[in-house]
Amino acid sequence: MNESSGSTAGIDIRHLEQWTRNEPVILTETLEQRPALGLAAMLDQSECPGIGEALPPLWQWVYFTSVTRASELGTDGHPVLGGFLPPVPLPRRMWAASKFRFNAPLRIGETVQKQSRVDSVKLKQGASGPLVFVNIGHSYLVAGELRISEEQTLVYIGKEQGHKPETKGETHIGRSDWSRSIQPDPVLLFRYSALTSNTHRIHYDRDYAVNEEGHPGLLVHAPLTATLLAELLREHCPGAHIKQFSFRALLPLVDSMSFMIHGRREGKDSVALWALDGDGQLAEQANARVIES
């Protein structure tokens, strides 16, 4: 991919870059147990953190959820662009990657401040057309102490660009220490959408996903797959604390096909995690740095 400047295919990147100069959006929430209970139930877990107990990594996504008014949603179900996010004139928006640093856990009952800002907007020319990458920084603080930092990457592509990634991640060949088969279905995707207030129609409206955006079925949320990978790590390394976690979404996972999640220890403090689609192709790749308690 080649990075572009100026205007390409009607995309005024200099205008979009103005969003990096906006003030951070600040939200404050006291972490109640109910959202965590909902996520635990969705994951078919019998236990959930109680008041004062640590929230597992990535569970913060069921907090600080969108409260966008109905009149402020676009035809795809997403909030209309031009508010917090720049108005990128490409129809498809996908969560491509995130990187986390966990300095300390959030705890149920704490009052947490989340600060979000647009860090960068970049236009690149892919093999099948332009792509715009928007990097967002999220910080979670308790009484001024930075607990979690996240670098989130969204990618915008044209409708005609298909479903193949512009670049492929490395292939995981060989053993995994743990694995599990996941059969996604509309109920799972609906529950995660509801827990995270994700109104993007590709996750619950099959007619829209197939006929409007050209997907082969309902799409599994990239952060849901990341959560399943992190939970696989927690299940098989109960004494390990995740200090860093990153993931990249490479291929779409759909509700019509089961997929496999895998994990492998790679040394004392590193864990490789990945998801393979129904055809055995690498769909999502994650890495974690851990310390033992």
Description:
With 293 residues, the protein is an alpha+beta fold. The protein has helices at 13-16, 33-42, 186-196, 206-212, 222-236; strands at 2-4, 7-8, 11-12, 25-30, 92-102, 111-126, 129-142, 145-157, 178-182, 240-249, 259-265, 270-276, 282-292. It has five helices and 13 strands. It has a single domain (2-292), classed as Hotdog Thioesterase (Thiol Ester Dehydrase, Chain A, Roll), CATH 3.10.129. The chain is globular, with a radius of gyration of 19 Å. The strands form two sheets. Strands 1, 4, 5, 6, 7, 8, 9, 10, 11, 12 and 13 form an eleven-stranded antiparallel sheet that branches. Strands 2-3 form a two-stranded antiparallel ribbon.
CATH architecture, by name, is Roll
The succession of helices and strands, N to C, reads EEEHEHEEEEEHHHEEEE
Radius of gyration, CA atoms, in whole angstroms: 19 Å
Separate helix tally: 5
Number of strands: 13
Number of domain units: 1
CATH topology name, in short, is Thiol Ester Dehydrase, Chain A
Structural class: alpha+beta
CATH superfamily caption: Hotdog Thioesterase
The CATH class designation is Alpha Beta
- The coarse overall form would be globular
Note poorly predicted spans. Answer: 163-170
The major beta sheet can be summarized as:
11 strands, antiparallel
Strand content: 35-45%
- Mean of the pLDDT scores? 91
Report how far the terminal alpha carbons are from each other.
42 Å
Oligomer: single chain
DSSP helix fraction: 10-25%
